Amino acid sequence: MEVPKSSVHILLLLVVGIACISSFTSTTSNTTQGQGLPTPQSSTASTPTNGLHGSCQGVNLPDATRSISTGVDVFVRDLTCKWKGNASLPEEFLIEMEQNIRRLVDSSLKAYLNQQGSSESSANVLEIFGTLDGLNLGNYSDPAFIRLWFSLKMAPLLPYAGESFLVQLGNQNFSCSSYQELMKSVTKELQTIQGIDRKLIYSNFIKVCLSRKNSPEPGCAEIRTGSEEWLQRNIGVFFLFATLQELKEMNKNFSAIEVVDKLSPQQKAELILDPDSGALEDANFVREVLANLKLSGRDEQLSQFFQTFVQISQQVNH
Ligand SMILES: *[C@@H]1O[C@H](CO)[C@@H](O)[C@H](O)[C@H]1NC(C)=O
Ligand SMILES: *[C@@H]1O[C@H](CO)[C@@H](O)[C@H](O)[C@H]1NC(C)=O
Ligand SMILES: *[C@@H]1O[C@H](CO)[C@@H](O)[C@H](O)[C@H]1NC(C)=O
Ligand SMILES: *[C@@H]1O[C@H](CO)[C@@H](O)[C@H](O)[C@H]1NC(C)=O
Ligand SMILES: *[C@@H]1O[C@H](CO)[C@@H](O)[C@H](O)[C@H]1NC(C)=O
Q: Residue ranges of region Disordered (predicted)?
């Protein structure tokens, strides 16, 4: 693998930065700090107590991991400025730097998990990596910052994000464009990371975020060019987990009829039985939806449709 010289310098800087941060935060380290290399004499003298042997016993992986994470936070903030500003750095360089730091985060996560074993609860991993801490350093309304934050601080940890973390994330004060940037990044990440519970993300992050009433910029509830575009920008691949009722709560102007050919069998049943949609009185519409289901040629779809139909009818009649 070829690593260009410039990024090696940056990574060295990062490592030095991390070493500095460690020396501020860690009181357990007894190594020489900030005084250059030790002289041969002092080095020999200190080896028995302060050499490899000593530091091996004192390894504190959570502290080291936190330090890396804090270093990455600083990078996220500074890189964002460079992306946005007229910095003389070429774009490929910035992309490469992002990829290199991502690799660093990936490997420190791997090292951490390897050391801690399965005893570590997943909530704890996000805590140790200070995933949400770095958010305070930047601008929640700036999609460029949010994209980079996600790429370097959140994406590697996505498989460990549980319910309470996602709810916390959903309650951050993202602007609408930051939220949409986040959705784009999450969707991209899902294409490469396996084993992520999409429904968990929908129920605890997306729904929470889009249903917030006290958000500083409730702009995501605005429909500009139609329900389909709104859906695509704000919910995307998570659409099938939503009930129409939930979508209406997120956006009262959402029209399921506009996106009828995208609806799941359950959502179609819900639409037909929704008194507000007037669909049940519209024989043509009902016929169309049923024809659409039959055309799909999958019995399983029809049975899902009727199961939901019966469930909702029972709820309505009680
Ligand atoms: C650091 O060094 C001092 C004196 O050299 C020693 O008393 C102390 O125990 C050391 N601390 C650690 C964490 O090794
Ligand atoms: C752009 O470059 C000029 C001149 O080098 C500098 O004064 C200015 O602060 C830069 N702007 C940003 C956003 O970095
Ligand atoms: C945050 O970012 C938004 C969007 O880029 C920008 O309009 C706003 O001025 C920024 N706020 C601060 C405090 O920099
Ligand atoms: C979001 O903003 C509101 C008001 O602007 C504030 O009360 C709240 O603490 C903020 N939430 C977070 C998570 O920063
Ligand atoms: C919903 O539609 C009405 C009428 O077109 C409009 O006045 C209102 O602002 C819309 N609300 C949202 C949240 O988009």
A: 27-56
Q: Which two tokens stand for residue 223?
A: 């429909």
Contacts of 106 (CB under 8 A, 6+ apart): 156
Do residues 292 and 261 make contact, with C-beta atoms less than 8 angstroms apart?
A: yes
User: What residues have CB less than 8 Å from 137, skipping those under 6 apart?
Assistant: 73, 74, 76, 77
Cα of 174 vs centre of ligand 5, distance in Å, is 22
**Based on C-alpha coordinates, what's the Rg of the chain?**
26
Report CA 223 to chain centroid distance, whole Å: 24
Nearest CA to ligand 1 atom 13: 28
CA distance 212 to 82: 32
Q: Count the helices and strands in the chain (H runs, E runs).
A: 16, 0
Alpha carbon distance 151, 146 (integer Å): 8
Measure the CA–CA gap between 128 and 112, rounded to whole angstroms.
10
Q: Where along the chain do its domains lie?
A: 261-318
Probe target for ligand 4 pocket from 166, 173, 174, with the most ligand atoms within 8 Å of CB: 173
Closest residue by Cα to residue 80 from 7, 175, 153: 153
Indicate if the pLDDT at residue 314 is higher than 50: yes
What are 110-156's pLDDT values in tens digits?
888 887 766 666 668 888 888 898 888 888 889 999 999 999 999 99
Read off the pLDDT of residues 62-88 as tens digits, 9 standing for 90 and up.
777 888 888 888 888 888 877 776 666
Ligand 1 atom with the smallest distance to the CA of 27 is 13
